[in-house]
Amino acid sequence: MAKKTVEKADTKSNVKKTTKKSPTTKKTTKEEVVTSTTTTNNEHKEVSVVEERLKSLYGLQKIMSKIDEIKILRGDLPLEVQDLEDEILGLKTRLERYNNDIKDGEKEITGFKNAIEEARLKIDKKTEQQSNVVNNREYEILSKELENLNLDIQIYERKINETTETITTTRSEFDELEALIQDKTADLTVKKEELSQIIKDTENEEIELRATSKEIEATIEARLLTAFKRIRKNARRNGLAVVPVERSSCSGCFSKIPPQRQLDIRLRKKIIVCENCGRILIDFEMTQE
Ligand SMILES: [Zn+2]
Question: Measuring CA to CA, which residue among 48, 92, 80 is closest to residue 187?
């Protein structure tokens, strides 16, 4: 309203400027008449313009609320699906690491077994040599070598046992993890199906709603649309930017609206916002029209 008044004043001052510059007074008078007529028309028009704006905003609100409902229906599912997919990917990476650890352990065991086999061959050879020795010293050396070879075998056997134990632990972790991945994958499948069903059910409705919202948005001036979007964003919990007055209260925040303000709202001559929550207020009758 204030802006409108300023605009009117501007127009008048412009006319006055023209008056000063204009050579003929007759023409000026005509212009003034024209201007004043236009102003009167504008005032009449203004009432219906505001009413139309309010109706457009309320229409847009209804569409956006329906889109919000669809989003609520989908709920956290899109996010849950994404989280599960990420989690499963991480678990599979860990499973692959377990698998590599098991393979590495098995390779180590094969290495130890080969080493034992070699040691045994050496023992056989040296035992045979020992039975053919000619002096005590040679016999002693061979005995020491045989003793060392037997110690080596014991060390390899202990290592085989240790690695086997590690593999057993890793294998049970692997199995647990594999079962967990199976559970999560089953969970993911269910959630994905649920989500795709909801999307399928609401897809066309959402497309239509979005198209309608774009059509309505195109009829609302940019400044007002920005305000609408800002209020909606601030009212994140319910996304309501345009609310009717119900039981003498703002139905967005339930604060009381003074009678004079209620009257102004019913007149639909200007856009009135709730002093408490900043939502655009409409009279209850408009919701019934
Ligand atoms: Zn309010």
Answer: 80
**Mapping DSSP to helix (H, G, I), strand (E, B) and coil, where does residue 274 land?**
coil
Given this model, what pLDDT does residue 47 score? Answer: 56
Output the CA 280–ligand 1 centroid distance in Å.
8
What is the distance between the alpha carbons of residues 165 and 177, in angstroms, rounded to a whole number? 18
Ligand 1 centre from 273 Cα, in Å?
8
Domain boundary assignment for the chain: 41-74+221-289, 76-219
Same fold, 41-74+221-289 and 76-219: yes
When pLDDT is averaged across residues 153-158 and rounded to a whole number, the result is 98
8-state DSSP, 256: B
pTM for the whole thing? 0.57
Q: Is 1's pLDDT higher than 60?
A: no
Distance (angstroms) between ligand 1 centre and the Cα of 212 equals: 27
41-74+221-289 topology per CATH: Helix Hairpins (1.10.287)
**71 Cα–ligand 1 center, Å:** 24
CA atoms of 172 and 181, how far apart (whole Å): 14
Ligand 1 mean position, distance from CA 103 (Å): 67
Going from the Cα of 248 to the center of ligand 1, the distance in angstroms, rounded, reads 11
Give 231 Cα–ligand 1 centroid separation in angstroms.
11
Is the pLDDT score of 42 beyond 80?
no
Ligand 1 centroid to residue 242 C-alpha, Å: 10
Query: CATH 3.40.1190.10: does it fit domain 76-219?
Result: no
Q: In the chain, pLDDT over 70 holds for what percent of residues?
A: 84
User: Picking from 9-18, 211-220, 251-260, 272-281, which range would have the lowest pLDDT averaged per residue?
Assistant: 9-18
